Recover the amino acids of this structure.
């Protein structure tokens, strides 16, 4: 379960990080960052569970497009609710733009698994997302310390190259292992 | 506003699309989808720029889906089927690019002429990035063929490419701002 989530590392890396998580300058408090990431991780599981629960009911979603719209709306709403409950809702919509939770149910539906298998996959994906985002935070922090006199844009370019190289390294590692 | 925020938004939004591009032809198709999505989202969000509701971003993304689907069906009927779920990925790209970023900044920018200028800059940045990626993939076809078999490595390589292309694009776009 966890391995499958980690093997989807690149999918999560590209799709899972909320827009605000990726774009906000790295001076953000660690607690706030990890609360947002935890909320996004929970929404992956919650959205997938809700999509699974709806299948086979009279409210079954019409095809992938219905599933996509439902997942997008449900993940956004669940993020907002969890952030409000945690007291971390600062009104920024970007924290709740969780593209992994929007696409994960579609990808999971295409795996041909049972409901239990899909939920296991979602749990693995959520764990993988949290791990990737945590790594991302510390990398960004390191880069910010090393490039204190440079603007935000050069820092973003360095982050992209660093994460890309890290992504390739992880992929080769899992391929070899 | 942070430095070159529209280029930053274009890079973040285009990342999911860049990994789905497999050559110059698919990059042209994806650019078309992107142009449709960004235009719809911007036109929808401009009159709502002073409305303080996060649901408007979801509504903008949902509005993009029918247009993308129509474009996708048309291109498929013409034999140009390409990419992985472009109708979804482009919606997810347009949400942070046009919605959260441009939609939010339009509130600060105010005047229609300035908003139009930044819309074109955002569109130009996104389309240029996609076309450059397509050209790079076509130009290194033998290498990317190897990457495709190691599908997990491919997104990392694309991310490194984005990090290297971004400073060059910044130099060109600074002359237009």
């Amino acid at each position: 379960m966890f391995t499958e989530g980690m093997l989807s590392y690149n999918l999560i890396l590209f799709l899972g990080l909320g827009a605000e998580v990726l774009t906000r300058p790295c001076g953000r408090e660690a607690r706030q960052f990890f609360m947002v990431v935890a909320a996004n991780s929970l929404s992956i599981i919650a959205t997938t569970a809700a999509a699974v629960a709806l299948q086979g009911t009279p409210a079954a979603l019409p095809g992938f497009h219905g599933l996509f719209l439902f997942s997008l709306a449900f993940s956004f709403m669940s993020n907002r609710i969890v952030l409000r409950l945690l007291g971390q809702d600062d009104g920024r919509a970007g924290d709740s733009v969780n593209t992994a939770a929007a696409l994960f149910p579609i990808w999971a539906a295409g795996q041909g698994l049972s409901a239990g298998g899909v939920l296991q996959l979602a749990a693995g994906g959520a764990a993988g997302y949290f791990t990737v985002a945590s790594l991302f935070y510390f990398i960004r922090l390191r880069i910010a310390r090393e490039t204190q006199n440079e603007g935000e844009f050069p820092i973003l370019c360095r982050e992209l190259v660093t994460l890309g190289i890290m992504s390739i390294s992880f992929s080769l590692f899992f391929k070899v292992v | 506003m942070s430095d070159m925020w529209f280029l930053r938004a274009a890079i973040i939004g285009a990342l999911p699309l860049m990994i789905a591009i497999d050559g110059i032809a698919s990059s042209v198709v994806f650019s078309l989808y992107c142009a449709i999505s960004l235009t719809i989202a911007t036109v929808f969000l401009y009159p709502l720029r002073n409305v303080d509701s996060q649901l408007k971003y979801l509504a903008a993304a949902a509005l993009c889906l029918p247009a993308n689907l129509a474009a996708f069906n048309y291109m498929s009927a013409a034999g140009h089927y390409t990419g992985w779920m472009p109708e979804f990925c482009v919606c997810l790209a347009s949400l942070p690019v046009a919605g959260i970023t441009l939609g939010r900044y339009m509130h600060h920018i105010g005047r229609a002429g300035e908003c139009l200028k930044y819309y074109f800059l955002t569109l130009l940045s996104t389309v240029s990035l996609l076309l450059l990626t397509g050209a790079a993939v076509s130009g290194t076809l033998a290498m990317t063929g190897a990457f495709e078999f190691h599908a997990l490595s491919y997104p990392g390589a694309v991310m490194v490419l984005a990090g290297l292309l971004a400073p060059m694009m910044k130099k060109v776009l600074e002359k237009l701002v």
Notes: The helical segments of chain B are 5-18, 24-45, 55-77, 86-109, 112-139, 141-149, 153-174.
